[in-house]
Sequence to fold (342 residues):
Amino acid sequence: MSNNEAEVTLGRFEKYIYLWIALCGVVGLFLGRFFPEFVRNLNALNVSGVSIPIAVLMFFLMYPTMAKVKLEELSHAVKNIGPTLLTLVANWIIAPPLMVLLARLFLHDTDFRAGAILLGISPCTGMVLFWIAFARGNVTQGVVVTAINAISTLLLYAPFASFYLGVGGVPVPFSLVGFSVLLFVGVPLIVGQLSRRLLTSRRGQEWFTNRFMPLMNTIAAVALLGMLVLLFSSEGQMILEHPLAVALIAVPILLHFVLMLGGTHFVGWLLRFPYKDSAMAALIGSSTQFEIAIGTAMVVFGLGSGAALATVVGPLIEVPVMVTATKFLQRTQGYFPRKGAR
Fold:
């Protein structure tokens, strides 16, 4: 990485990240158990099904990633068809039936199955860009792919949900998809790019890279941990009341992630993609947009349903799983050709 390119890291938090995750889980469960009214008031702050506190934290989490994107490279990313096709095949052709198979194997409750399937058919269009940057993947290509995924979700989510669930009339979450993409990708990208140009013109590239971006990386790490606290506090009562159900639901979700991540990355290696492209495809191909799955489960099956319960397990395990995945991917860099050595 060049000296004038800001690297996205978790700073001082990265060394003991698993400890911080565990502590955030404990704090979240404590808040959910002993301060339920406070948690309910936080959850009530939402627009079109998107939590405002989560949106604020997501902005600070995504800002370093989006400030790092070089817009002049977008035209090359659009023309780089191979990784894009691999990701779309993984998201829309492989992931849904694989989740159906795993849900049938491990979940006997039909509502739990439905929730897991809703997760499996909702490709990620937001937070995954942070993990791509953290894994030293191709973030610019990821922006292109997530944009395509957002459009694909608007067109395919409802028919896929109806087909795989066997339930007619599953609504298309237009407002939720559009609002999520705008908040989690659009706003951080615009602010990141404008602030990068403004700050580098006034303070210089060196100050932006060596002083400002490390500070924003630290703030992003705090935002990530804050999101964990919010998620665990929101679902704390559910975890405490149904620990075995949560553990059972987590099995197919984890297996699905591992198989999709490993399989997509292996195909990227077979196709001789550079590491950055393969890591991008693997992370997007294995990730899910849990906001869409949760919103759909609540509309179709009800707020207190087993399907809604199953969909919230996804975000609870996402951060530790993603941290592990990015560390694994980085260790495979030596097996991939360097850029241009196809």
